[in-house]
Amino acid sequence: MSGSERGRTMTQVDPAETGQDGTGTSRIHTHAHTRLRRALGALSRPGPWKRGPLLVALALLLGLLLLLHAEIPNGLGNPGSLVETFLPWFGLCVPVLLVAALWRRSAAAVVALLLPVTVWLNLFGGLLGDKSHPGGDLTVAEQNVDSGNRDPAGTARDLAASGADLLALVELTPQATGTYEKGLAAAYPYRTVLGTVGLWSKLPLSDTEPIEIMDYGPLASTKPASEKLASNRALRTTVATDHGPLTVYVAHLGSVRVMPRGGFWTASRNIGAQALGKALTKSIAAAPSRPVVLLGDLNGTTDDRAFTALTSQLRSAQATAGDGFGFTWPAAFPVARIDQILVRGVQPDSSQVLPANGSDHLPVTAAISW
């Protein structure tokens, strides 16, 4: 091989490396195009403030529902009362939406959740802590003992062991009333039973009378008195305490139903709530300084607008001096507090829900002082 040939051999370069055959140039163009496409895709992809518009809308709707629940119309199907009955549970939607917002990396949705969180805490945050304190001049208790209770004697023993000074029972049946009277006689020397409701007391009772909350209206007068008394569901009595007379109401308002076509049926309960509210107004007007306690199964929560006639005159012992929501029904897995202790003119010191004792409702108790 000549020197000139060796020189040519040493300076020879692969055309693919120089791009003389077009392949290298094409590869460079391809890489550049890919990078440009990725950059444009990143720019066109929605950022964290634009992601999850549906989640943002749901969070805002949840906040507005909690904030404006009183504005939900109670027309066909009573949707307003239905929402208010389970209003605290709407707070569970917040963690669900938060998980979805984090998964979508939506900063806008996370910020939007501040609205329902703030409103929920404003409505129910005060119920999360224990507001009870020692003391109390009188202890009152209430339970719907369940007409289908298979062990009324056992229920009576548990209730007597609660130590309550006043014990209100509702949904009594003729068959079970005698069992309760026998089981509670030793602890409660005074009692009054009218129809399906009764009050057992360690203190003297007087001036007991039924309160008409079911047969309310023009047809009420056509029903025989004996028949009305047998099914009576509310009473008023006076308890003689060391601090003076105490007016006590015991009530079991009408049932409610959730029906596929009719929605949330509350007609009977609402009529009873209005009638009971009028009786309270009359009683308070006659003796403005006398304290009042209402014990009963109202078949609804105090958040429900249907009870304005009651809650405008009385306050909840659980909301004032309880620990938590105090749900009472159903006993197996309570989701709502429909058994109430409402007071006026006395101070609730504590409020508790007692353990299950054979009924489908949990018993409630509260200590009050003058």
Automatic annotation (TrEMBL):
Keywords from the named record: Endonuclease, Hydrolase, Membrane, Nuclease, Transmembrane, Transmembrane helix
Ranges for domain Endonuclease/exonuclease/phosphatase: 144-361
Organism phylogeny: Bacteria, Bacillati, Actinomycetota, Actinomycetes, Kitasatosporales
Molecular function terms from GO: endonuclease activity
InterPro entries cross-referenced by the UniProt entry: Endo/exonu/phosph_ase_sf, Endo/exonuclease/phosphatase
Transmembrane residue ranges: 52-70, 86-103, 110-129
Region Disordered, annotated ranges: 1-28
Keyword Transmembrane helix: yes
Protein name: Endonuclease/exonuclease/phosphatase family protein
Pfam families registered for this protein in UniProt: Exo_endo_phos
